[in-house]
Design a protein that fits this description.
By secondary structure, the chain is an alpha/beta fold. It has nine helices and eleven strands. It has one domain: Vaccinia Virus protein VP39 (Rossmann fold, 3-Layer(aba) Sandwich), CATH 3.40.50.150. Strand 4, helix 2 and strand 5 form a beta-alpha-beta unit. Helix 1 crosses helix 2 and helix 7 packs across helix 8. The longest helix has 19 residues. The N terminus is likely disordered. It comes from Siphonobacter curvatus. This is MnmC-like methyltransferase domain-containing protein.
Length: about 240
């Protein structure tokens, strides 16, 4: 999930914006009326985030020996991916620099209902949501957060080129709601902020999304997904290989 488009869809009248629901693994998610989507899988918000972003992304880099990891998240949303990453960083020999984009932040009355701290035996979710926007905030000795209040398109157009990102959590809302965020142009723009071997993980394994990733310069891998999702994607930034193929 990510709310990063200026072209919202019509909302589903059967659900209210920021409606809270308990997913099958006991963790909460919210509904976005703007994009007619749930922020996480109803099969389990925790299981989804853990499998796609930690196991296929952060854990994979840790196992490869990386000890300083720069992450770009497409869609801060409920803050669950950031929370899991902060907690993982506190348990691992790693320092994480985490940049997260969000065009439509969840209001306090919504995120204060989420049970993630209780579910994860933590007390940091509110600090993630209340961290200042558009500035770096050090939330622990191993985790620095920069929340950017912008669309992905504006971020890519205006972000200066600094240290490349090692990992992208691509958690935009589905192509049916935000098709403009699943294009070769968008993925190429992200690639300009990566280095060879950087990873992008996402829940969406649609064939046209995989083709767009490949055309942009990624090598695409399909992996078994969490409950309710047969396949998910891990893509490796290899532009030279893509140009040769």
């Amino acid at each position: 999930m990510e709310a990063g488009s200026s072209n919202p869809t019509h909302s589903d009248p059967t659900h209210a914006s920021n409606e809270l629901v308990l997913t099958k693994d006991g963790s909460h998610t919210l509904y976005s009326a703007r994009f007619n989507q749930w922020y996480h899988s109803l099969h389990g918000a925790f299981d989804e985030s853990k499998r796609i972003f930690l196991e296929l992304g952060l854990d994979y880099l840790l196992e490869s020996g990386k000890r300083e990891i720069r992450i770009l998240e497409m869609g801060f949303g409920t803050g669950f991916n950031a929370l899991l990453t902060l907690l993982k960083a506190g348990q691992s020999p790693v320092v994480v620099d985490y940049t997260s984009l969000e065009a439509y932040p969840i209001p306090p009355e919504a995120y204060r209902q989420l049970n993630y701290d209780e579910f994860m035996h933590a007390t940091v979710l509110q600090s993630l949501h209340e961290a200042a926007w558009d500035t770096e905030v050090r939330l622990s000795p191993t985790f620095t957060l920069r929340k950017v209040h912008a669309t992905l398109q504006d971020f890519l157009a205006n972000e200066t080129f600094g240290e490349p990102y090692d990992l992208v959590y691509y958690d935009a809302f589905a192509p049916s709601s935000q098709p403009e965020l699943w294009t070769t142009e968008i993925f190429s723009g992200i690639g300009r902020h990566l280095q060879v071997g950087s990873l992008l993980t996402t829940y969406c394994s649609k064939s046209d999304v995989r083709r767009a990733l490949k055309a942009a310069g990624f090598r695409v891998e399909k992996h078994p997904g969490p409950q309710g999702k047969r396949e998910v994607v891990r893509a490796v930034w290899e532009p030279e290989r893509s140009n040769e193929s």
